[in-house]
Specification:
Shape: elongated
Number of strands: 2
Strand order of the largest sheet: 1-2
Number of domains: 1
Largest sheet: 2 strands, antiparallel
Number of helices: 4
Helix content: 55-70%
Structural class: mainly alpha
């Protein structure tokens, strides 16, 4: 069974996805038809594509989040190459890791979308911080309350 903290982590990743998808929807008419799709290590744009690819990457993000959640939900299908000392604690830690991984995935994809929407780095950080700070505080406070019992 997935704990409430892990569900909150996955909800945080979905909130990032829905926020940038909403911004994409609201600003889609202002985006040029051809957008940069790849930037090399030097910071030069070396790939271009149609703006519909922004929606495709959003759907890919949703698919990956659902896949990670399903993997976290059904640990009997995990292929663990060793026998952990405490299976319950191991599963709990892996689920928390998967929740954090889903947040990082959504944030990474959101930077690409927000960059296309002409957001600066500080605006991106401010937006992501405002989306994630309240749930993070709830997780921390909930964790402290659960540990004190």
């Amino acid at each position: 069974m997935i704990s409430i903290k892990v569900k909150i982590l996955f909800a945080m990743s979905l909130s990032v996805l829905f926020t940038y998808a909403g911004l994409l929807y609201l600003n889609y008419g202002n985006i040029p038809e051809t957008i940069p799709t790849h930037i090399n290590f030097k910071g030069e744009i070396d790939g271009y594509g149609n703006k519909i690819q922004l929606w495709i990457i959003s759907l890919v993000n949703l698919f990956l989040l659902l896949t990670i959640y399903l993997v976290a939900k059904f640990p009997k299908y995990w292929n663990i190459p060793f026998k952990p000392k405490n299976l319950v604690v191991f599963q709990k830690n892996v689920r928390v890791f998967m929740g954090i991984l889903s947040i990082l995935l959504s944030c990474a994809i959101s930077t690409m979308i927000l960059f296309t929407l002409k957001y600066s780095a500080t605006e991106m950080l401010r937006l992501l911080f405002s989306i994630l700070i309240l749930p993070m505080l709830f997780v921390v406070l909930f964790n402290e309350k659960a540990d004190s019992k």
